Fold each of these.
Amino acid sequence: MTTFIVRRLLQLPIVLLAISLLIFGMMQFLTPEQRAATFVKSEQQAQHLDQVIRQYNLDKGFFVQYGSWLKEVLHGNLGFSKQSHEPVLTTIAKRLPVSTELALYMFFPTLAFGIWMGTMAAIHRDKLIDQIVRVFAIAGWSLPTFVLAIWLLAVLYGYLHCCGIGRADDKYMVMFAQGTLKTYTGMITVDGLLNGRFDVFLSGLKHLVMPVLTYMVVASAQIMRVLRSSMLDVLNSDYVRTARAKGLPERVVNLKHARRNAIIPVVTIAGLMIAFMIEGVFFIEIIFNIPGLGQWSIPAAIQLDFPAVIGIALLTGVSVSLANLAVDILYGMIDPRISFQ
Amino acid sequence: MRKHLLTILALGFVGAMAFAATGPDTYVHMTYGEVDSLDPAQAYDTASGAILENIYETLYTYKGQSITEYEPVLATSYSISDDGKTYTFKLRHDVLFHSGNRMTCRDVEYSIKRLLVTNPGDSAGWFYAQSLIGYDGVNAKDYFGGKATQADLDKYWNAIDNSVKCVDDYTVQFHLIKKDPSFFVKLMYTASSVLDSKYAIAHGEWSGTKKDWYDWAGKDLREGFLHNHDAGTGAYKLVKWDGKDVYAERFIGYWDYAHKPQMKNIIIKVVDEQATRIQALKAGDADRITVNDRATLETQIRGMANAKILESDKWLGAAATAVFFNQKIAAKDNPLIGSGKLDGNGIPADFFTDINVRKAFAYSFNQDDIIKDLYMGKAVPLTMALPPSFLGYDPNIPIYNLDMDKAEEYFKKAFGGKLWDTGFTMTIAYNSGNTTRKTVAEILKQNIEALNPKFKINVKAMPWPQFLAAYKNGQLPALVLGWGADYADPDNFIYTFYHSNGYFAKKIGYHNPKMDKLIEEARSITDPKKRAELYSKVGYLAHDDVPVLPLPSPTGWMVLAKNVYTLHAPAGMDVYNNPMRSGSFLWKDIIKK
Amino acid sequence: MNPQDMKPKRDPWYRSKTFKRFRRNPLAIVGSLLLLGFVVVALLAPAITAPQLANTPSARPCLRDLGVKRSEAVEALRNPLNAVFWKAVLAPPRSCYNIPRASFSPLPKPPSKKHPMGLSGDSYDILYGLTWGTRTAFYVGFLVVGISLAIGIVIGGLSGFLGGATDNLIMRVTDVMLSFPGLVFVMIVSVIFGSGLTTVMLALALIRWAGYARFFRGDILRTKAQDFVDAARALGASPLRVFLKHVLPNAIGTLLILASMDVGAIVLTASGLSFLGLGAPVGYADWGQMISFARGYILGTAQGTPFDFWYVWIYPTLMLVLFGLAWNLLGDAVRDALDPKS
């Protein structure tokens, strides 16, 4: 098991290098003028475009640019993002906690909701409940995220005033900006508690309601489907039939025996969900105005801010690879039959 | 699970008990588009300008909503020499920077010299350099392209060094290379804000001496200290800006202590999604929001209980937009002009040099459609490429509007009648997301294709980078371009659009010696009346020549919470709106009732 | 003995247990009917929207390219005996995919006789955008699945067939592809090669093949281990022959079914990207665009009710939901039917 982990860890840098080369290579299809578009936003500002190109060495060769970039990366410098006007690493450090906080709050309710729906559908297979759950889940999944989000926004925020956009109420954001409230982790709810301010924590939660709800509706269908089919497999297995034959109550069989075994594929899905979530977080951050990684990297990609794009690709590469690693290890813990050869 | 969900919901409702509203001394403006830089010498966009005009100050500034009346700020008075080349300003005493340092002439000298030294390619430095040192308005590194001799550099530095001089601690003098009637208003643009030189130098900015000046030439100031630190004298000081939202607070040591601003905290929030901004206004979390288009204003905002829409026919932006006919289209590898010949499958590179083609295009464009549909009736047609509020704008010049008969007549005359027989195919490109450009292209397409089945116009969306590259390389045959005023002088527009050496005119190869002479003459005199006459002549000549077709200018609006007002508002208005201010009004003038 | 004989004998498909199971599943029937409906709408798009084509000035290029006069358009496009009908159904010119704009007004207009589903933001005809958008949906879905499946089969096949170091290398490459968030990949590709439907499809295909390759490789390894393959090998068939004749046909079936069920997911992703502004240019018939035109009007008006502009978002949303539902119900049903345990 240890060798397996070490081997997987050793692959990581190679994967990352491949990712960076891939993106950096693709960026070179652009002409220097096109890359200079990062810096100017109107024709008025483009008066001295040649100057801009020279200023940022946009006319140098691929290997010169990639070489100098790689050297910097190995020194822990990911370059300068024009979108955020600061070093990429600084931006990531600032925004990663925001996205992580959002993702954490999104992850567990969605997973739980999906598991609950999957269980219901499997136990009541082909009955009305099954049909309703499935249609609901798939409809939620194919609903355009924006339409759903905008209705939540209108009802919960514009009409009921019960949740908020952004990260916390403005008065707290001002206090964080001025330093009256200290920033420890960059996650509002955690920092609120560390400052001993329960009201800040609550305000943070309040601003997470809409993103979490949106994501739950959109993403839980995947989990529901996987759990339903694997639970069906297990319910048909000899093991469960035996339990049933022993005369155990149906509820105990369903929950204790069947679900525990059906959860294995869910671990896989949970691993995959991390990659999915990166996309989900991107969309949601934009609509609900949450200053996380997505809100920075989508415009950065559109603006051809390639240090930012490469940085975000590296980051997601690391996260997904690590998540896969964690999933593999979890497998071993849940299902001892899996060996690591 | 259901329980969990309910808990979250319940918590949300508890928090919602109190109706959210910004505090009585806090002002929240939600807008879109990120601030580019808070270094005055770098910033050249309105989002940055809206912050800078509040945390920095210039020597003089626009008075209230006027663009022709000015009031002293960091100066107290000024005088111009008889030859119009020397400007002397008496400075205000007892002005404190946010650091606590006292402002003297050294700071003014440093600020302007820094502007001339650095002058990055994407900044506004060019128009100061043109007045004060020449060199085509380009910084030393790019002017010489790295091939400068020491003598060249010394000469360049001396030009900078001689352009600003301190007579004493509170008197500064500017020496222009030639007469420039717009220099005084140029000094009101945020780029010429006065910086705290001691503070800046102490934190690693340019030393202010010849020693390291060349290192700073053309440098991207977004990587410097002042990019996100404030060294100003303004009524507000920057609390925090980390690339997105801006937090600022009232400056206690402000020189004009008799007029203490009412707002203590200012928050400028970047909320790119318009629907989210609207909901925030509705929920009472915003005092002002930026609304992009008239249709949204009319449907989503009008009728909202706690919001007000302020608008006026006089609120025309200090900007001009026009359709440009490119007279020197780059023919090489250009898919936008098809075959590149007059054979029906393309257009020749000199397509628009024929004035009949330009006129035919102008008569194929429906100005009323744009005003009625795109701006829902709230726009005025422009007779020339100059904002109507500017000196010299002549409302009596006729405009081109849809006239299918005339369009046909001119198309039949074009290229000796050949064009009508062969037909043509061309592509009008726009940068994706720009509705105005798209609509203009579609209107032209619809009307011109209806004239003759052999006329084909394709409308193509391009991402901004591709569009900019095609623009730079002169590949776009017809395109829409806009110019926002840098300073309140007609020359800023007229020269740009119509002079053969102007930025836009040069780009599209428009050249008329008669026109150039008129513009240069207007540049060399200061008498407003005479200048206005000359610009009117320019307008008539431009109508005959049609190098560009000016597009209607939409009237402006502002969306505010019900209780927001400003000082110095004109009678019958809740706020003033100065088109030269990026934020329409200054934060220090905001009052909540 | 012929190794083929060791494979289980099969009834004709319509009499098989699998099909019976499928037929008895009500959700499967619903899914199939929905999908059939979409196919009909896609095919008959020109006939359905003939009046819009004839009556909206901005649809002129389409009629011109079809070679039909405005006055005769409705008749020609609805008459299967007319050559124009078949041209429009089978090979419509590209200009027909541009949604006609009734005017240049930004405001939506409610359903009327001329525009049965109303006009969306910027006066785009909703009926037109949705019917022709169905064509785009199928086109995008099938093409992306097709390309990624082709790449996946070739690469996964090579991996499974050759084994050893090649297998290892290929699997590491799929690791790289799989650890890439699809959205970011699509954004980069479409920004670099110019945003457009083709680039988005290409990007989606280039990111999706890895999953198929993996699955196909696993399937091959499983099939390889089966008895009839061993038998064939024992009879002296060359490895390539064994692979092409026995391994490939057996492994490919499951993969095809699996992949076809991804069509719905791809269309949803593509419409999401189109909403973000990555994909077809503004005005191209595509469901994501229809949502994007509705963007500012989903919540109705401030003076009136929130449902003042219901038609701008309900129709496109319905299309997307039903399309996703159709493929998913069908997919679940096929999977259930194929599962011998149930």
Amino acid sequence: MEKDRNSFIFRLLSTLFVILAINFFLPRMMPGDPFSTTSADEVGEEIIVMTEEQRLYYLNYYGLDRPLYEQFLVYMKNLMTGDLGRSIYYKMPVSDVIMLHLPWTVLIVVGATVISTISGVILGTLSAKNRKKGSDRIMMTGLIAFAEIPSFLLGLILLLVFSVYLRLFPLAGAVTPFADYNGPAEQAWDILYHAFLPIVTLSLSQLTGVYLLTRNTLITVTTKDYIRTARAKGLGEKTVWIRHALRNALLPVVTRTGFMIGIMMGGVVLVESVFSYPGIGMTLRSAVVGRDYPLIQGILLVIAVSILVCNLLVDKIYGKLDPRVGI
Amino acid sequence: MIKDIATSGNAGILSFIQALNINRINQIISSIARKFSKFSTIAKPFSRFSIEGKIGIFGVICIILMAVFAPMITIYPPQKITGDSLEPPGPGHILGTDELGMDIWSQICYGARMSLTIGLAVAFAAGFGGGALGILAGYMGGHIDQGLMRVIDVTMALPSFPLLIVISAFLGPSIFNVIFVLVLFSWAKPARIARSQTLSLKKNNYIIAARNYGAKPFYLLWRHIFPEVMPVLLVLVIGISSHAIIAEAGLAFLGLGDPTSKSWGMMLNHATGFRSIYFTPYWQWWLLPPLFMLIFLLLCLAFISRDMERILDPKLKIKKGF
């Protein structure tokens, strides 16, 4: 058990290291350097051609002429102190840009996690209870087919149906622009109204996983001896299902939730682009289009770290929930 | 001539030739039959596919035909301006035109080539490359195996899509780069499964017996282990190809696809990038066709892989190793 935990921590750390290394080496492997730009990006922009002397000065100023390992150490030191560099497009520190957009992403990812977990567990329980009946078959086939559609295509369909065709929901953004709110309740309503479709999209894409997991674990759990004992004691069906079966079946769901956040952090980039939702995914897209390398690296780091932290948290919570795992 | 007879598989002719007892012909036929029996592991389950699986196979074949015969079933080339801007579907252009006046139907047909090429290339490179690595590691064991397992663990824990975006942003958009990066992120799963299968196969008596008779490692891997692992790899290959198609469409949708190509993802990117597309009826013929085609292809692939998994289930469950 101790060895398992060590290898788990080792895996997290080595994953983090690989991401940091990719983040560090990828831009430095590209040909050229930031100071040998010879063409303007936009018409009318002044082209600054540096003399060789100036170029060397800047290379020295940014530490790009030092050996790679030294640069890597400086990079790590900066990361530890929370310095992610400056965004070229926004002209402010990368960490500030991320902080500005991260709350929106957290809102829809957390919202989708909660909704898909709760509805997945409820549907899975219903399905397991009505096993071998028609409703179970229909629910299974329908949800499995749903799961095969990637989240951004699902998002496009929802957008076309509900925002474009029915005009029920907004097309883009996280708040109504230039809105005057009469109190926090109205503001919260506006935010929820805008976040609704992205959250539904993300939840639908994750729902099937939770549903299948709950259904299958419940079906295994209900064949166990302690369920028969509970029934033999004369407990009601409701108590047996909720207190005895579901409580035990929920354990794998907890692990699944952690993985889910990881998958969603990947998919959120596309979903946010579909809904023009101003989270870090959308920022990543605009950073990629604008070749804002420090921002791209910063966002990748934030996404990666949040996924790893989720995995770690799930591991800790699981240990608390299931004493058999033990720490 | 002999080949023709053998491939026709006519039992009567076969028995007639065998009755002639010409040694050479017999040898040739049996060698061809042996080659065929390798493929029968793929061909046999077809009759066991469910209705959904058959629909899936039919759909994928339709899309493949569409891609192969694209020049014949389209009137206009996909990258040329052949009509007015944003023409609605009509007799001239079956599905209308986009904002530059290019025919959407031919873009769809030629786009199928892109999606299928990337799906197949990534799936075969990652599936069989990763599978080969896994088999080798599982067979050799020791430090090589341990090292590979560590690499696999890390690769599987990496957040693949954000990294895909960043790497393709830095490497620059081209088909080759997209394929390369996708292979880099999808070889780990087939490698792990091939490894665990090899580990359990290695202990079988017939393999130990073959080795004791002096079989070389390459012979063992090729003749005994690879045919056993292949069906499982084949299921994985379908899964990987649908992942690759999704990833390519996603990257292209973000504007990271090959700008010179017309893939379905690029069409989505152009359409959603068009200012105020949602306030005009244009999305009905510009955005819907690629969206529909992508979902159709992915559902077909999913049906096939689900069916294959079901058919191979007893094997998968025991040897998957989790």
